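User: Can you model how zinc ion sits in this protein?
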Amino acid sequence: METLAAGISYIDLGFQDTPRIIAAAVLQSPAGVAIVDPGPASTLPTLLGALGRSGIGIDDLTAIVLTHIHLDHAGATGTLVRRNPRLRVYVHERGAPHLVDPTKLLASAGRLYGAEMERLWGEVRPVPAGALAIVAGGDRIEAGGRPLHVAYTPGHASHHVSYFNPETGLAFVGDTAGIKRTARGLVLAPTPPPDIDLEIWETSLARIEAWRPETMLLTHFGPAAPCAAHLNELRVHMALAADLVRASLARDETDEARERWFTEQVRLQLRRRMDEADAHAYEVAGRFDLNWRGLARYLRKKTDSRIVDSR
Ligand SMILES: [Zn+2]
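Assistant: Here's the modeled complex, given as structure tokens:
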């Protein structure tokens, strides 16, 4: 466990045997232990092993605090609650039904990951409705003995929330502040279908900035600071990615070919800045072909609604 502040740390879940892909945060106090985004079921042994080495057993856990329900953040939740039924699970109301009945979530993920589902995510168990505590923007909760402010931060997912601990200046931002694997790495936006909305995403970045956090904990991966510079770099790369997808849509070819072209362009950008292993690891955190699909869906929807508006 890497320490962020007194009683607050994070664990590298070693997703797909690759370092610095998924971080789970741990908030510890005599009042209990909370995990922010426990990750997928496939990395549960790593999570429990790291907790165990710090003297934390599964029965010591009191809360799972979710930024959103995507499998790389929340897939292990049902299994954890089954093993410790006292756990409370904090989640936005739009995500809650899909924890209780993950059928649609798994179907949607299945369309993106196909035969890789089991290997990537492991078993996804439903979460009993009685374990859920619904959160909304503006709420204040206490988890792991820490007060947390809640902000509604959609854009990556329509049910995404972020959490801020004012005592330490730490913000737990899930995927809203993008992916940055290493100090020299680029800040890329994970934009898989189906919820991507860049305009709404910008309002979420403004909400995080309004907290004036000292450090943001990115799920992919780890602490990021100073926050203003980081978020501005995210804005630049989000705009660049959207420009590339627009350019791809103007090319006279199939979506498969457009997806491949976009993927190559992003790979080229990364390879100018880092070695092959680090560049490849970005794709383990968020596949570029899926980023194309999410952005293309968003841009096409926006164009369609403009055509309707101008009638
Ligand atoms: Zn993620």
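A couple of observations from the model: The CA atoms of residues 180 and 187 lie 5 Å apart. Residues 70, 72-73, 175, 190, 219-220 surround zinc ion (CB under 6 Å).
User: Helpful, thanks.
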